[in-house]
Amino acid sequence: MPPPHPLIITSKSEMRNWSRTLRSTTKSTICLVPTMGSLHAGHLRLIAETRIRADVVVVSIYVNPGQFSRGEDLESYPMDFEGDFGKIRGIGGVDVVFHPYNLYEYEKKGVEAAVEEIQIEKEME
User: Fold this and answer.
1) How far apart are CA 10 and CA 89, in angstroms?
2) Is 19 in contact with 54 (CB distance < 8 Å)?
3) Annotated catalytic sites, by residue?
4) What is the number of other CB atoms lying within 10 angstroms of the CB of residue 100?
5) Does pTM surpass 0.90?
6) Which of 53, 68, 89, 116 yields a CA-CA distance of 20 to 30 A from 44?
7) Are 15 and 9 in contact (CB under 8 A)?
8) Is 8 helix (H, G, I), strand (E, B) or coil?
9) Is 47 exposed, middle or buried (0-12, 13-18, 19+ CB in 10 A)?
């Protein structure tokens, strides 16, 4: 019999409310395993190890658009939530999967940043 479904949370406000409620009502240790999805054996081993060390396990599956520059193709990054969720269910022990669409709402706010690259090591010589 497959393990029960972990709770899926998709908004940061819902995640905040869930974690605050848990922390205020129990002394449970909550551990987060942050991922960008495309789960592999290393992720699954980390999740299993986390289960041993924490009362509550949260796995995030979030690809941050801000991590990609204009020259990098966010759309080509492998994303398979159903496949990842199936792997999580298969190993069991995960209480919550945090899968937000876009935590920082880059597209909605039109946020842009300019970064000036400097060579710190030259300044420190």
Assistant:
1) 17
2) no
3) 43
4) 16
5) no
6) 68
7) yes
8) strand
9) buried
Q: How many residues does this entry show for the chain?
A: 125
Which of 68, 64, 59, 6 has its CA nearest to residue 35?
A: 59
Half-sphere exposure of 51 (CA within 13 A, CB side): 13
Look up residue 34 and give its two tokens.
Answer: 């942050």
The set of residues, in sequence order, having a beta carbon less than 8 Å from that of 19 and lying 6+ positions away, is: 30, 58
Reported confidence tier of residue 1, pLDDT bands at 50, 70, 90: very low
Which tokens belong to 54? 């924490």
In terms of C-beta density within 10 A (0-12 exposed, 13-18 middle, 19 or more buried), how is residue 96 classed? buried
DSSP 10-69: -SHHHHHHHHHHHHHH--PPEEEEEE-S---HHHHHHHHHHHHH-SEEEEEE---GGGS-
Q: Are 100 and 106 in contact (CB under 8 A)?
A: no
Distance CA 95, CA 12 (A): 16
**27 CB neighbour count, 10 Å cutoff:** 6
